[in-house]
Amino acid sequence: MNVVRAERRRKIIHIDMDAFYASVEQRDDPGLRGRPVAVGGSRERGVVAAASYEARKFGVRSAMPSVTAKRKCPGLIFVKPRFDVYRAVSQQIRAIFAEYTPLVEPLSLDEAYLDVTENLKAIASATAIAEEIRARIRAETGLTASAGVSYNKFLAKIASDERKPDGLFVITPRRGPAFVEGLPVGKFHGIGPVTRAKMEALGIRNGGDLKARTSSFLQEHFGKAGPYYFRLARGVDDRPVSADRVRKSIGAETTFGADLFTAEEARAAIEPLVGKVWSYCEASTLRGRTATLKAKYADFRQVTRSRTVDAPVASRAVLEEIISALLEPLFPAGKGIRLLGVTLSSLEVDSEPRDGRQLRLPL
């Protein structure tokens, strides 16, 4: 009980910018406003780094191959990413955060956790702080942000999705446990498609079903994550907001609706994953020396293959070449592949100007 009481004294805000890259492009080019926009890729090749809300209505989403996105939305407008602009705007937003609390944990250029339990403006209400921050972001950048307010990180992040775009949602300590009970397990942060399918096969479809299972049952079926799911089902998350959090890797993975059996299918599936990883590298100026491929077969057997190079991977083409080389030995495949993942680790900040561009400073 003491853990839960301590948990409820915390005041956590999760700020998430609305369709950040695409919104910046629409802000800076009035001709794009109200139109379906995809940042990144091209009509023939590449992947979508971000999609405007107008494009999302057609099913266009980040990491989707550009060809697929164009098929879903024939009127889609592709815009080249301007990561220097996105970083500059992100710095503006973080400067606003810093006026309220030093406990800011950025997750990416467009989202962050803030612990405002003890805040620099001595404002008692976390909801009031969130409203003030959203208003200032709009006034100073011309962009909208959604916010979630709660007593832990898990619920604050879920709350920020509830009223998107340009919304605010609060999950109070009194409301938290009941809110979690009605939440589909697929909306739990950290529960992906494979784990969700496994839970549903066990009759666990929402937080209430999850809460009804014992810790030992969850550990038996989900290993080390079992106790974590046990706590989440009760609205408990004691992770602190870490202002000095260091990212150790950049990764993307996907589970397929139908298993893959050929190298050609796998290479096509890998391309958007490489694109998603490289988009983050471009946005953050992080580069890595170790590329890892993960494959999970239909029988849930998992293999990983890694390669470390002498210098940080300098381009998407190089990363794709390394991953493709790691992929080849997996074929011909005796069993179908249900999941593929790409990770870049051994990260460092890119300090070299490339292609004549001005050096971009880290955040």
Produce a short descriptive summary.
Monomer. This protein has helices at residues 2-8, 20-28, 53-56, 66-72, 83-98, 126-141, 153-162, 176-181, 193-201, 207-211, 215-222, 225-232, 263-284, 316-327; strands at residues 12-17, 37-39, 50-51, 77-79, 104-108, 111-115, 145-150, 168-170, 249-260, 286-297, 302-308, 337-349. It has 363 residues and is of the alpha+beta class.
Describe the protein:
It is found in: Cytoplasm. It catalyses: DNA(n) + a 2'-deoxyribonucleoside 5'-triphosphate = DNA(n+1) + diphosphate. This is DNA polymerase IV. 38% of the residues are buried. This protein is α+β, with helices and mostly antiparallel strands and 363 residues long. 38% of the residues lie in helices and 21% in strands. The strands form 3 sheets. Strands 5-6-1-7-8 form a 5-stranded mixed β-sheet. A 4-stranded antiparallel β-sheet has the order 9-12-10-11. The protein has a 3-stranded mixed β-sheet with strand order 3-2-4. It is built from 14 helices and 12 strands.
